[in-house]
## 1
Amino acid sequence: MSAAVETKDQAHHEDGDHHGHSPFQAHHFETMQQQFDAGKLGIWLFLFTEILMFSGLFCAYLIYRYNHPEVFLYAHKQLDTTMGAINTVVLIVSSLSMAWAVRAAQLSQKKLLVFMLSVTLALAGVFLVIKYFEYTHKFDIGLFTGRSNVMYQLQHPDESDHNRELYDSAIAAEHEEEAEHKEEEAHAVAEAEQEDEHPDEHSDSHASSHGDSHGHGHGGPEQFLDAPRNTQIFFGIYYMMTGLHGFHIVFGMVAIGWLLYRSIRGDFSSEYFGPVDYVGLYWHLVDLIWIYLFPLLYLIRS
Amino acid sequence: MSDHSTNHSDDHEHGLSHVMPLSILFGTFLALLFFTGLTVFLADQHLGEIDIWIALTIATVKAGLVATYFMHLRYDKPINVLLFLFSLGFVALFFGITLLDSEQYQPQIQEYYESTTTVTVTEAPAPAEPAAE
Amino acid sequence: MSTITPETQTATGHNDDPSSNYLTCTSGFMSWAFTLDHKRIGVMYLVGIFAAFFLGGVLALMLRMHLLVPGGLFPDWMVSLDGYNQLFTLHGAVMTFLFIIPSIPGSLGNFVLPLMVGAKDVAFPRMNLASFHLWVFGAIFFLIALVTTGLDTGWTFYTPYSIETQTNVIAATIGAFILGFSSIFTGLNFIVTVNTMRPPGMTWFKMPLFMWAIYATAIIQILATPVLGITLLLLMGERLLGIGIFDPSMGGDPVLFQHFFWFYSHPAVYIMILPAMGIMSELMSVYSRKPIFGYTFIAYSSIAIALLGFLVWGHHMFVSGQSPMAAVIFSGLTFSVSIPSAIKVFNWTATMYKGSINLATPMCYALSFIFLFSIGGLTGLFLGALATDIHLHDTYFVVAHFHYVMMGGTVIAFVGGLYHWWPKMFGVMYNEFFGRLFCAVVFFGFNLTFLPQFVMGSRGMPRRYATYVEEYQIFHVLSTIGALTLGIGMVGAMAVLVVSLFKGRKAPANPWGAATLEWTCTSPPPYYNFEHAPHVDSPYDYSDLKYDAQIGGYVKDPNAPKKSGSDHH
C-alpha cells in the first residue's frame, strides 16, 4: 500500500454544507491547520515504516558484505557505474522538481505546479527506463538470482545437465582464449625482439588474458570462472534492493499522477496543498534510499 | 502537542507552513550534484579501507541535505527531526546486534565452507585475493 | 476521485431521529462495508477477529484431542504426522496474525479511542477503513493457504524448511504481509489522533491510561512491523527467485532469518500485551472506584515496555546457532523488560487497596488477569535466563508461558474490556450471573489446560510433537480436559454477550460510574459521538458521580464539590 491511500484522507468533505470551512476540510478536524499537521505527522510516520523496511535489506547487505567482501568486490563490476550515476542525477533533479511543485502549490501557482509534477513524473519514467536497460543487460549475460545465476551454475556443474554443459563449454572457451593469447604473445615477443621501445604492449596483453571482463568484449560465461564462491548472493541482494526501490518509484508515479490530475482540476492552492506536500515527502524518501543504494552497490572499489 | 501554529521563519505569507525560497531549492540541488560527482570521483581513487566510510559519509551529507531542505525538516517542528533520528537509532540497533552476532559465528561457517567444495571452487582463487583492476 | 464512495451517515443528510445511534442511522451492506465511522469499523473488526479466534480455537482443540493418547488419538489418515504440523502451524498463524495482534487495537481501540479523546473520529477515517479491508484480504490469503496445501512450517516460518516445503508458504506470507500493513495503518492512525486531536485541557498526563497503552502499542506497530514485512518479502524472494540469503546451500544464513523475524516478533508480543494492560488500568480503577495508583509510573512504563521490547529479540534464539556473546547480551537485557511490567502489576493491585470493589464481570476478568499474567510473566524469567532456557527451549514450558501471557493476559483482558464497554457499544446490559459464571469456567479451564504443561515441559516434553512417551500422558489428559472446559467457557462468555443484544435491558450512558469521556455520550453513541465537545476532567476522579437507581447508572452529581485540578501521583 502506498501513500496514495493515505493522502486521499486529506481530500474532500462529503457534506453539502460547509459552515464556512474550506471544502477540503474533513468534518472531524477543527481547523485546516490541525488537518495539515495531522497529515504531516501521518506521512512522516509512514516514512519511518519505509525506512525500517528498507533497513532490513540494508542489514542483509551489511552482513554479507562484511563477511564476504570478495563477493561484493567481484560482482559489482557487473554494474554500470555510469548508468547508476545518471540515475542518481535523475532522481536528484526529480526531487528538485517535486520540491518546487510543493512550493508552487503553496503559492497557488497552478501552471507551474502542473509543469513541475509532469517533470517529476517524466524523470521517474526515465529512471525506470534506465533500470530496464540495466536489468536486461544483466539478464543477457545470465546474471539472474540463485540457481539460475550463471556464476552459481559454473560453480555447481554437477547439479544438472545444463550446468555441466555450461561449465564444460566455459572451460573450453577459456582454453581457447589462452591458446589464442599464447599465440599472440609469441608473435609479440617476436616483434619485440625487433622493436624494443614498446614494452607496454606486453603488459597490456598479459592483463587482458587474465579473464578480466572489462578487457574482453566476449561476454561469454567463461568470464565468470574466477568468481568467488556464492557470488550469486550479491545479485539476490542487488535485485531485491533495486527491485523494491523500483516498486516504490512506481507507487510514487501513481501518486504523482493522481496529484497531477487533481492539480489540473484546480484542487490545490495556498489554502490546501497537503497532499502535494505529503507525496513530495514520500518522493524525497525514495530519492534518499537511492542516495544510499548507489554508493553501496555501484561504488565498491576495495 | 496539540498546538497548531509553530511556523518558523516564514518568508512568504503566514500560511499553513513555511514556503521554501527558490534560492535554497537550487542551492541544495547544486550541492547534491556536487557531492554526487565527488563520490563517483573518490570511488576511483582507491583509498583502501576507508573507501566505504567516505562513500557513506558523503551519502549521509546528501541525505541530510535532502531531509533538511527538500523535506523541510529545518522549518518543521523539532519533534519531527527527533522522531526521524530516533527511528534511525532503531535501525542502528538492528544492524549493530545482528552484525555482532553474525561476525561471531563466522568461524563455524568458514569450517563448513572449507569442508564442502564444488568442482570450480578449488580452481578459483582463495577468497582473500581481490581481483586486480 | 476514489473507488471508495462512503455512504456514511454524514452523506445521507443526518438522521434527525433523536433515538438513532451509530448502529441504526443507516442500514445496508454498503453502509457498513464502506463506512468511515470508527465505531462501525470497530464492530466489524470485532466480528472478524472473533471469527478468527473461533477458527484458531477449533484448531487448538483438534490438537489437544489428538494428544490425548501417546500415539495420537486420530488415525493416520485423518491426522498424519505432517497433518499435525499443519494444525499447530495454522493454529499459531491464525491466532497470532489474524486474531491477537489486531484484536484490542482494531476493535476496542477503534471504538473507544476517539470517544475517549472527545473527537468525532480518528485522524484518518479512510485509512481506518483501509486497515479493516486489509485485514479481510489478509484473512482471505490465510484461508487460501488453509484450503490449498495448508502450512507446516510453524508460524515462525524458519528457513531453510520454509524455503523447501511444498506447502503454500507464498499465500501465507502474502497474507501476513497484508496484515502487517493493516496493523501499521491502525497504529499510524492512533499516533496521529493522540498527538493532534486531544481536546484542550487533556494534556499528556491527563490522558486515560488506555490511551497511553494504545499509543505505546502504535509506536511498536510503526517501527517493528515493517521489518516483518521485509522478512516476508525476502522469504518470498527465496522461494520464488531463489536469492539464497537464508539458504545454507546457497551460501545463505538461516540464523539471519531468525534475527530478522524476531526483531519484529518480539516487539509484536508487546503489541499484544500493552493494550491489554491499558484495559487493565481502566478496569482496576473503575471497579475499585479509586484513582489508579501510580498513574505516572504506569504511563512511563508503557513507553518503557515498548522501547525495551526492541532490545531482547535474541532470547528466542538461544539455541539456534546465535553466538554466545549475543546470547548473554540478550539474556541480560531480557531481565530489564520485566521491570516495567512488574511495576504495573503492583500498581493495579495497590489501586484496589481501600477501594470500593465492584465484582462485576469485567472486574472478575481483571482479577483473573492479575493472577494469570503474573504466572506468565514470572515463568518468562526462567526462559529469559540463558542457562535454564537451554533446558526449557522448545518444550511445553514455553508453550505454557506464552499462553499464560497471551491468552491468560491479553485475551482475558480483552474479554473483560469487552464486557466493560459492551453497554456503551450496543446499549444493552448483559446478564451478570452468567457473565461471572463463565468467567469462572474460563479461569478454571485455562489453568487446567496450561498448568500441567509447565510441569511436563520442565520434565522434557517437547513442543510441536504429535506423539510422546507414556510418562507424559497424565499431563496431556488434564490439559485436554482443561482445553475443552476453556472452550465451553469462552463460547459461553461470548454467548452471554450475544444474548444480551436480544434480551439485555437498556443501558444507561454510564452504568459503571467511570470518569473517562466515552461515558458522557449516550449508549450507544450517536454517529457524531458528541453533541458538544465534552468538558475534560480527570479521567480517574469519581467524586462527582452518583448512582441513580432509576436509570441503573451513574450521573453527574450537581451537589458534588468543585474540583480544582487533578492530582496524579
Note: The first helix of chain C runs from residue 29 to 33.
## 2
Amino acid sequence: MNLRYYISVILTMLWIDVYAQKITFTGKNIPFEQALEAIRSQTDFTVFGQKTEIQQAKNISIIANNMYLKDFLDAICEVEPFKYNIENKVISLSKIDQQHKSNINSKSNLQKHTRSLIGKIVKKDTEIPIVNATIKIKGTTTQTNSNTNGDFALFYSKAINDPKVEITLLGMKPFQAQLDTIDYQTLKVEMEDETKELDDIVVTGIFNRKKESFSGAYATYNAAQLQMASATNVFEGLQILDPSFQIVQNNNFGSDPNQQLNIEIRGKTSVAAIDDAFGTNPNQPLFILDGFETTMERIRNISIDRLASITILKDATATALYGSKGANGVVVVESKKTKPGELILNYNGYVNFSSPDLKKYNLMNSAEKLQFELLSGYYGQVNEYGQIISNNNNREQTYLNRLKEVKRGVDTYWLNEPIRTGINQSHNFSLDGGDKSFQYSIGLNKQINQGVMKKSGNEVTDGNISLTYRKGKFSFNNVLNARYRVANREPVSFRNFAQANPYYRKKNEEGGIDKYLENIQFDERFNPLYDFNNNNLSKTDGQEIINNLNIEWNIVKGLLLRFNTSISQFRNNGEYFLSPKNSQFANLPMSDRGSFSESKEKILNYNGRATLSYGNTWKKHTINLGSSMSMFHTHNNNSQYGVTGFIDDKIINPQLALTYEIGRRPTYRDVRRRSVGFLINTNYAYDRRFLFDGNFSLDGSSVFGSNRNFTNIYSVGAAWNLNRENFLKEVNWIDQLRIRASYGNQGNQNFNDYIAMQIYQYNTFSSNPFGPGLSISNFGNLNLSWQRTFTQNYSLDFKMLKDRFRIMVDYYLKDTNPLLVSINTASSNGRTDAIQNLGGLKTKGIEGIISVAPILRPQMSWRLDLNISHIRSEYYKIGNKLERLNEKNRNRSMIRYYDGGSPDDLWAVRSLGIDPATGRELFLNQLGKETFVFNYKDEVNFGNSRALFDGNLTSTFYYKNFNFMISFGYELGGKSFMSTLYNKVENISSGSIKYNQDKRALYDRWQKPGDKTSFKSIGLQTSTPMSSRFIQDNNVLRIDALSMSYQNNTWPFLKQIRARSIRLAVGSNRLLYLSSVRNERGIDYPFARDINFSCGISF
Amino acid sequence: MKIIIIPLLCTFILLGFSSCQKWLKITPSDQFSSDELFIDHDGYLKALNGIYIGLNSPKSYGQALTVGTIDALAHYYHINISTHNYHKIATHTYTDSTSLQTFEDIWTSSYKLIADANVILENTPKSPSSALPAPYYSIVKGEALAMRAFLHFDILRLFGPVWTEDSIMEPNLPYALHSGITLHPLLSSKDYLEQVIKDLEEASKLLENDPIRTEGVRHYENPKGDNSLYFRQYRMNYYAIQAMICRAYQWKQDSEKTYILAMQLLSEIRPEQNNKFIYVTHANATHPTLKDRLFSTEVIFSLYSTSRNNLYNNTFSSMLGRQQKLTFNLDNIDMARVKELYDDENDYREDIWQLRTDNNINTINNMKFESIVNAPGQFMMPLIRLSEIILMAAESSPHLSEGINLLNTVRKSRNSIDLYPTDRNALLKFITNEFRKEMIGEGQQFFFYKRTKQSTLPRIDRLTGTTSMFLQNYVIPIPDSENAIR
C-alpha cells in the first residue's frame, strides 16, 4: 500500500474504462465476502447481494494479479454460482440457486419471478450517503434498509404489476418512484430533509407561499449556509450571503459586542443624519421571529442551531404583509420546529477566539512624538538646528525631562493595554422527541462573549420549551422562551489609549499605576490605565419571557384558520458607576466626585394575529387567498435616577452617595403604543406560467395621531415562468427562466411615538394657587403625511445546465416621497425645529448573484458565487430648507443636503494641495480660480462614500464529508473621508498636541520652503477646513469568512458513544482587511478578527 | 367553494374593524394630548395656568425680564468687574456669546409661551359651550389673549426700535397669531403695536365681568375649590389689561390717549373711592418681622413664584461672590449709590437696602425679594403696579399742577416729602427718579429709558454719576434662531 498504489488507484478511478479496472487479490479458501471487499476497496464499484446468500456462500480460492475486474468477477462467481450485473458502477449479485431448484419447485418459480432493485441513497446537494432508510415496494411487505454507504438491494416478485418503490426515513421527505418491469434495475435516489421543504416555500412569517408562485423579491438562507458563513453571528452571515443586506460599519464602535448595529436593506429610505429627532433609526429594517416583531438585539444573539431559516423580504410585494412597517425591508427568522420521532439529543457549541485588529494604527513612537512636539513649536520657537530659542512658558525644562526619558529608552506601546484575545463560547443543548400527535422540544443555550477590550462583554442564557399537539384537524403549538442577558462595557474608551504619549511609562518604579503620567499644573496628563483599573461599572442586564401560542384549524382541505398570540415581558436594568478616583473628577470638589445612576425599564407586549387562508388548484388555475387581522399593544415604562458624591470605589452602593445629582430630577416615562392591521393577500397562478400577487392592507396605529389613525398599503406583482412555455419546454439545458415585476407602496413606522401629536406635560417648574399647569412639550405636526416609499422591482431568475449556472438579477427603484425631515423653524413659532414633509429621496439599485458550479458530481462539488450590489440615491425637491443642517455639518462632516446629492455624498471645497513656497493650502473656487481663501460656497460634490460596487465572492467546495468555504468581500469605486489625516495628521490644535498622533504628522507635513508635501506646515495649530485633500479613493478587499467543516455519521467512535452524527468545523471571520486608504479603524473600540471552532453532536 | 370563501374572507376582515378606532386612541399616562385636554373647563384652565407657571422660568420673567438682564440693562447695579455675570449685558455688548444666548432665551421662551397661548385660543370655541361654559370661557379666552399681547409687547419694547416716525414703519418683528410653523410675517412696530392693542381690547371685553371689579382681588382661597377666579393679582385680570392698554398707548407716544385711559383706570381703582388696590400701610411697610417690601396690596399683576427664594439666593444673597451678586456696591459698604437714589431718608423703599454681615464680610444687600415666611406677598414678583399708572398719568397730564399732584401722591404713600418741580422737564426728571425707586427688580426701568430716549444713564462702574447712553444700544438685536430662518 504505497503511495504509487494510491495514485494508480485514483488514476484508475478517474481515467480508465470500467472494464479495464484491475484487481490484485490472492486468497486460499477464504470467505466469498472477502473477495467482494477487495472489489470495493480497490475499485470505486459497489457490490451488492442478499446478505445471507453472500455469507453462506462457499469459500473460494483465487490468485489474481492485476486481473481485469470482469475476469475477477467471473472467477469468484464460479464456485458458488452467482450471476452478476454491472450497471453504473454498481455490481449486483444474485445466486443461481441450484438447491432451490432441486428442492422446492415453488421457490424456483419464485426465483424465476423475482426482480432485483439495487441502488444508492444520498442526500440531495451534499451527496452524503443516507444510512438506514427504509426501502419498500409499495403495497407489499418486501423491504430492506440502506447500509452505511447508502447502498441497498431489494428483490421483489415479478407478479407485482405496476411496481412502485417507496423510500422513507424519519426527518426526510419520502421518496417514491415508478419501477420499470425489468429484471435488474438500478436506482439513484436523492433524498431531501423534511425541513428542506422550506426550499420550495417562501416563509413570509404570515402566509407561506410556494416559491414558484411568488412574485416578490426575497432571499432565504438556511442554518447550514449561515453557519458556514459565520458560526457566531447571523447578521454577519447574512451580509456575506446576500447582496442587499448591509451592516453599515461604524468606524468608532468597531466590533463592540454591546453596540447597536446599523443595518440597511437596499440602502436608505429616510434622512438618517438627523435620526435623533425621531428617537429611532428610520432606516432600520423590521425583524420578525416566528411571526412576531422582535428586536435586532434578539436576533443578533440567537443561536444559529435554533434557526430553521432566515428570509429577507425586499420589495413591496414581499413586505406588503407587514403593511406600514416594511419600507426598510423585513428579516423573517423561523426557528426550528419540533419533529415527530424518537428522542434526539443535540449538542452544538463553539469556541471563538477574537483578537483585535490594530493594523491600521500608525502611531508615533516616543522619539517621533517628542520631535513632533518640538517642531510644532510647543516648547517654544525652534531654530533650524532644532534648538529651542525662545522658551515658551518654561516648557523647555519639560522638554528636557521628556527627552531624558526618551533617551533612557522609554517607548510605551499603550494600545495593547486594554485589549485581549476575547474567548467567546456558545453551548446549545436541545432535546426533541414525541410521537405523531404530541411532540416536545427543550432547548438550552448559553453564550459567553468576551469583547476584545478587557472588561467588556456579555452573557446570554436562553431556554425554551416547545410543545406541539396534533389532533385531527387541529394543531396546537406553544413555545415558552426565557432569556437573561448581562452586558458589561469597558470603562475607558480605546481612544484614550491611542492618545497616550509613548514617552510616559505605564508604571512607576514600584510597579504601581499612577494617576498622573505627568503632573504639570493646568496641564495634567492622566494615565488611562489608572481609570481603567478603577472600580467603574457600566452594566446592563435584562430578562425576557416570551410565550407564543399557535392554534391551527384545517377546516377543510385548503382552508386553514390560524391564531397566533404572543405575550412577552422584558425587564431591563442599567447600573452605571463612575469611580470618584477617575481623572475626570480630579479638579472637582470632593462632594462632586463619582456618580452612580440606575435605570429601569419594563416592557409588556401583547400580540395577536388571526389568519384565514385558502388555497386550491383547479386544472390550470391555482389560487391562494389569505386574510389576516392583527393587533399589537406595547407598554413601555422606564425610569432613571442618579446620585453623586462618593468617597471610595471599593463598594458600589448608591446609599454611599453624598447627594442626588444637583439640579436634576429623576426621569420617568410611560409610553403605550397600539396598532392593528387588516390584510388581504391574493395570489393566482395560471398553468404555473403566469403568476399574480396582490396585497392590500389597512393599518392603524396610535403613532399616526388621532386624525390619521389608518393608512393603506398596497402592492401588485406578476411573474412569468418562461421555462414552462412551449417554446422553451424542449430546451433541456434551461432549468428555470422567469421574470418578475412588482410595484407598491411601503410604510415606515420607525419614528418617535408622538411626532404627529400635540402633547402637554405638567409644568413642574413652580406652583401656584391655581392648581396644576400644563405646557406643550411636543407641538407635533397634526398635518404630517406619512412617509411612504414607492418601490418598483424587476427581476430575472435564470438557471441552466442542471443548476451548474445561475443568474439572479434584481433592479429596483425606491422613491420616498415625501420624506419626514426635522427642519429648523423660526423661533417665533415657539419651537426651533419641527418635523415636516419635505422633498424626496430616490434610490436606484441593482443587485445580482452569479453562481457557477465547475464541479457538480456526487460526493464532490464546487460552487462559486459572486454577489454584486450597486446603489445610488438622490434627494430632490429639498431646495434650501436644510441649509441650517448643512451649516451645522460644516467642519463636522462632509454630508450635505442638496437636490441631486445623495445621503452618502461627500461635499468639499476642491484643494490644490499645499503651496510649497508658503506651506499654506491652495483652493479652487467656483470660478475655477486658485485661492488661499477657503469658502464653503465653493463646495462641490466630490464623490460618494458608498462603493460603486460591493459584494462578496464566495467559493464553497464540498467533498464527501468535508465542506470548505471562503468568502471575499470587496468594495470598489467609493471615496473615503480620511478622518485620521484630518484629525491626527493635520488639525492638531494646540490643545491636542499633548495626545499621540499619526506618524505622518511628523514626516509628511511641510517644514521649510520648497517642501512638496500634502499637509500644511508642522508649526501651524490652526484648524484646517475639510477640503477635498482629505478625500481618497477607497477600495477594499476583505476575507470575510473562511471555514471548513466535517460531518460524519459512520465513525466507529460514534457508535461507541451512541451518537448518531457529528459535525466539526473551524472558521474565521474578518481575517483580513486590505484597503487602499490608511485610516485608523476602531477609534473607541477596536475591530476584531475571529477564529472559531465548533462542534455538533446528536445522540 | 370559491363562492363561499370570498365573502367569508371579507366578513373576517370587517369583523371588529369599527371598534378599532377607539382601541387605537391611547392616552399617555404621564402626559396629555391636546385632544384629551380640551374636553372640559378644567383642561383649559390647566393649559392656561401652564402659561402663568411658565413665566417663572429664570430665562423669562423669573429672572431675566425682572431682576436680571433687564435691570442690568437699566444700569441699576454696580458692576465694576469684567468677570461679573451681567457685565457684558450692562455694557451693552450684545454680540458676546453669553449676551446672545441670554436674549435668545428670552425670545424663545416668550414665543414658546405665546405658542401655548395660541394653542389654547385655537382650541377655544367661538362662544361658551358645554366643554367651556361661562364664566370660564371669558377667563380662558380673555386671559390667553391678554397674555399673548403682554408677551408680544415686551418683545416689542426689548427688540423693537426706539420709537420714531421712521423707525416704526420698518417691518422687523413677527406677531404670532397662530401656533403653526408657517413663518409669521414681520410687522412694522406701528402695526405690531396695533395688534397688541387689538388683542388687549378684545381681552378687555371678554373680561368685563371679572370679579375683581366687584369683589376686589380676593386674596384668599375659594371656599368651593377652584381658584381661577380668586387671587386675581396673579392673573391677567381686567385692570391689568387696562394698565397694559395704557402702557401700549404710552409706548406709542400718544400722551393724550394715555392720560385719558390712565385717569379712567385710576378713577375705578383709586383707593380713596374704591378699595381695589390699597397703598401700603405704615404698619406693613415698617413691620419689624413681616415687612411688606413689595407693597403687595398695590400690585395689579404679578408672578406667583414659589422659587423666589432660589432667585434671591442666586442673585442678591449676601453669601454670593462678586461675580454673581446684584447690589449697589460690590466692593464695600459705601452707601453713596443708595443715598443718590433715595432723596428722602424716610422713604419706605430705601428699606430694601440692608447691611449684612456674613462670613465676617460686610455687604450691602437688596432685600426686596428676600423670602419672608408669612410676610405679605411672600411669593410675589410684581409685573404691573398701581404707582406706574399714577406716574403714567402724571407724565401725560396736560396740566403741570395735576402732574405734580399725582407725583406727590406716590411720594406720600412712600412716606416722602412732596416735591415742587417748576417746569415739565423737572417734573419728568422727578418722575424718572420716582420710577427708578419704584421699579427696581420689576423690569420696567429700561423700557422707561428707551421710551423717553434718555441719553444718560447712571454709571455702573462707579457708585455715583452718569454715563452716556447711545440710542442704538436700546435696541437688542433679533436672535439668530429667528434671523437665520428668514
Note: Chain A touches chain B through 61 residues (CB under 8 Å).
